[in-house]
Design brief:
Elements: H1 3-12, E1 39-46, H2 50-62, E2 68-71, E3 87-89, H3 96-102, H4 107-127, E4 139-143, H5 146-161, E5 168-172, H6 173-179, E6 187-191, E7 195-197, H7 200-213, E8 217-219, E9 226-230, E10 233-238, E11 241-250, E12 266-276, H8 281-287, E13 294-297, E14 303-307, E15 313-317, H9 336-349, E16 358-369, E17 375-379, E18 384-388, H10 397-410, H11 420-423, H12 434-451, H13 458-466
Parallel strand pairs: 1-2, 1-11, 2-8, 4-13, 11-18
Antiparallel strand pairs: 3-7, 4-6, 5-6, 9-10, 10-11, 12-15, 12-16, 13-14, 14-15, 17-18
Helix pairs in contact: 1-9, 2-7, 2-10
The structure holds flavin-adenine dinucleotide.
């Protein structure tokens, strides 16, 4: 890499604020006061990201008379739900390919439920006036290397054969460049219906307001530190008082679960993103992008990118960093070497935007599990339900997970609880040093496959065989 180019990329980052662009918003609502003294409720929801917020909201929709309390350790939406790319996908399985490989018998059902879930999110956005820049633009999965073009074709053929290609369109280099002009694009698979773009933090804040309007009591800066069975219900300890609840739903994502046995199913993987300053009309014209789709490239180490409502470009992904020991720590939220790498890749994709600067750069932890899609379960004789493991595709799927948790707490058999995906668990991650070593070897192998025409080495083939994977 030429030193001059490196300096230009570093210069493009010189003014970038080290905070999520989405959370750096004058409209960020005040936190609700913390708990003071003991509380009682029918349902306690732990966690104020999308998972907890949807659970509280849907619980009230199902039964308006239910007394619901939500506790959040810090502020609503401060974690992954306020830092993500804002790709709200119908897929419940981290992409159809992953779902088809793992649950071939029920993938059609999973896709139907996922599409209905995305429709229900769109409906809730309208019904509750959630001001979150929701745009059902679809997504372009772009190939930037010849072997990726061949893989997209094969994948499209496989989906067509399985009857799963509705709404998908294969594009050649010229067709995709007419949509978004990058000299690196060699083909694409366009999903017109199955993905929406939104403002992540505004979705969390809107859901918070909708919950409050339905009578949910929300306590922020109130971490739940212990959960135990108590008399005929549950007792949850916080630093400011106890909460006695009949049932509890845990939407605690990558943070240590209050149900200890669940912890080994996920590891934190840090993902990073940049946001540019707003593009001028000329800059926007130079890249086209009239249909405002989200984009992702089809490498193992992939980038995702999209326009914001005010025509900035969010550019994220590629590096997926697993810290030894698997802890969630603020010091991992920023990684200047990843920012420089991402800036370089950005200008390779869009050389016509040379001179554009980044206004924000940030990272966040993803709850990666070995099957890349959420798992569910109950504890404390069915009084506690949990959902986690969304692995980088939880903006939409957390709403489905909320419904599953409520089904499980109600003891109801539904089309959701009957799914093998819901009834089975992922393989757990081993303890250190095996987790770090295995993940490092997998990452190294994935990078080599990207540089090597997509060819998977023996390690990756062995991992594929046992269904163990690593992704962000
Ligand atoms: C950089 C980045 C980019 C991403 N991009 C996308 C994307 O484009 N599309 C997509 O679908 N997904 C994306 N994701 C993933 C997506 O953001 C998550 O799947 C989703 O936000 C998960 O929501 P959640 O509510 O489970 O978790 P979170 O938003 O992490 O919320 C969990 C909350 O629980 C609270 N909590 C934890 N433990 C306790 C406790 N004991 N007591 C009280 N509170 C507690 C935490 O403080 C936190 O607020 C991305 C993630 C990252 C980090």
């Amino acid at each position: 890499m030429a030193a001059g180019a490196m300096n230009r990329w570093t210069a493009s980052l010189a003014d970038a604020k080290p905070v999520s662009y989405w959370l750096d918003d004058p409209g960020r609502p005040e936190a609700r006061p913390a708990l003071t003294g003991d509380e009682r409720c029918d349902l306690l929801v732990v966690g104020g990201g999308y998972s907890g917020l949807w659970t509280a909201l849907l619980a009230k929709e199902r039964d308006p008379g239910r007394d619901v309390v939500l506790v959040e350790g810090r502020e609503i939406g401060w974690a992954a739900s306020g830092r993500n790319g804002g790709f709200c996908a119908a897929s419940l399985t981290h992409g159809t390919a992953n779902g088809l490989a793992r649950w071939p018998k029920e993938i059609k059902k999973l896709e139907q439920l996922g599409a209905a879930n995305l429709d229900a999110i769109e409906d809730a956005v309208a019904r509750y006036s959630l001001d979150c820049d929701f745009e059902r633009t679809g997504e372009l999965d772009v190939a930037t290397q010849p072997h990726q073009v061949a893989e997209l074709r094969e994948y499209y053929a496989e989906l067509s054969e399985a009857g799963l290609a509705d709404g998908l369109e294969l594009m050649d280099a010229q067709e995709v460049r007419e949509q978004v002009a990058s000299p690196t694009f060699q083909g694409a698979l366009y999903d017109r219906e199955g993905v929406a773009m939104l403002h992540p933090a505004k979705l969390a804040w809107g859901l918070k307001q909708a919950c409050l309007d339905l009578g949910v009591r929300i306590y922020e800066h109130t971490p739940a530190t212990r959960l135990a069975s108590h008399a005929s219900g549950l007792a949850v300890r916080t630093p400011y008082g106890r909460i006695f609840a009949q049932t509890a739903a845990l939407g605690t994502n990558v943070f240590p679960s209050l149900v200890k046995r669940v912890r080994s199913y996920t590891v934190p993987v840090y993902d990073y993103a940049l946001m540019t300053e707003p593009l001028t009309a000329d800059q926007l014209a130079s890249i086209g992008w009239k249909n405002r789709q989200g984009l992702g490239d089809s490498a193992n180490q992939f980038h995702y990118f999209r326009l914001s409502a005010d025509n900035r470009i969010l550019w994220g992904g590629y590096d997926a960093i697993y810290p030894y020991g698997g802890r969630v720590r603020e010091e991992y939220d920023h990684r200047p070497e990843t920012y420089a790498k991402l800036a370089g890749h950005f200008f390779t994709c869009f050389p016509q935007l040379e001179g554009l600067r980044f206004s924000h750069a940030w990272g966040g932890a993803i709850d990666t599990c070995s099957r890349f899609s959420a798992f569910f379960g109950t504890a404390h004789a069915g009084r506690v339900a949990y959902a986690a493991g969304y692995t980088g595709l939880g903006v939409g799927a957390t709403r489905f997970g909320a419904d599953v948790m409520l089904d499980l707490l109600a003891g109801e058999r539904t089309e959701r609880t009957e799914l093998e995906m819901v009834r089975s668990k992922p393989l757990p991650f081993p303890p250190e040093p095996f987790a770090y070593t295995g993940i490092a070897l997998t990452k190294w192998s994935l990078a080599r496959a990207d540089d090597n025409g997509g060819r998977r080495n023996l390690w990756l083939k062995a991992m594929d065989t046992v269904g163990l994977g690593f992704d962000s």
